[in-house]
Amino acid sequence: MKRILSSTVIFLLSIFMLTACGSKTAQDTVYKELGIDVSSGEEISKYDTHSGNGDGTSCVVLSFNNDTVVEEIKSHSSWKSFPLDETVETLVYGVSDETSSIGPYLNDNNGNALIPKIENGYYLLIDRQIENDKSSGADILHRLSFNFTLGLYDTDTNTLYFCKLDT
Q1: Could you count the other beta carbons within 10 Å of the beta carbon of residue 8?
Q2: Are strands 101-102 and 95-96 parallel, antiparallel or unpaired?
Q3: Strand 56-63 relative to strand 42-48: parallel, antiparallel, unpaired?
Q4: Is the dihedral of CA 121, 93, 77, 64 positive or negative?
Q5: What is d(CA 66, CA 96) in angstroms, rounded to the nearest whole number?
Q6: Would you say 81 and 46 are in contact if contact means Cβ atoms under 8 Å apart?
Q7: How many CB atoms lie within 10 A of CB 53?
Q8: Percent of the chain with pLDDT over 70
């Protein structure tokens, strides 16, 4: 009886350890997607509506106590400094004129933008829908579906917003 109990405990501990080793933190995901070390970031909030078919919106907010992350961002040529270009502005906050409005595409279930207005910072848009040398990404707003990753860093608050949209 002791032997069976002992074997069961060892088996359960092994399963637990394998499961724990396989789990990823928000910081791990951001590092993999954006290529910047955010291990010192504190997760402030997380929003995710991805369903079983992979469609949905997710946004993770990380806060930092120093400028280490922004210094790393500045060293990557793929990150751009504010102001946002028209495409990113539309995706994040939406645009409107006298006759129409478009976006925001990164929104909660009520259509509200997930990211507060940022005045100063850096951003990175990764269009996961284009194939190499087949699309410039400039037509992202004119597609029937979206698959993109966006990193926004607010230098005034040392806050990183990491969002994905899949439709």
Answers
A1: 10
A2: antiparallel
A3: antiparallel
A4: positive
A5: 36
A6: no
A7: 7
A8: 81
| Cβ atoms of residues 62 and 151 within 8 Å | no
For residue 55, name the pLDDT band (cuts at 50, 70, 90).
confident
Contact 166, 52 (CB under 8 A): no
Predicted confidence at residue 19, as pLDDT, reads 40
Calpha distance 71→55 (Å, rounded)? 33
CB-based contacts of 82: which residues, under 8 Å, 6+ apart? 118, 119, 120, 121, 122, 123
136: CB partners within 8 A, 6+ apart? 130
Is residue 138's pLDDT more than 70? no
Q: What is the overall mean pLDDT for the chain?
A: 82
Q: Is 13 helix (H, G, I), strand (E, B) or coil?
A: helix
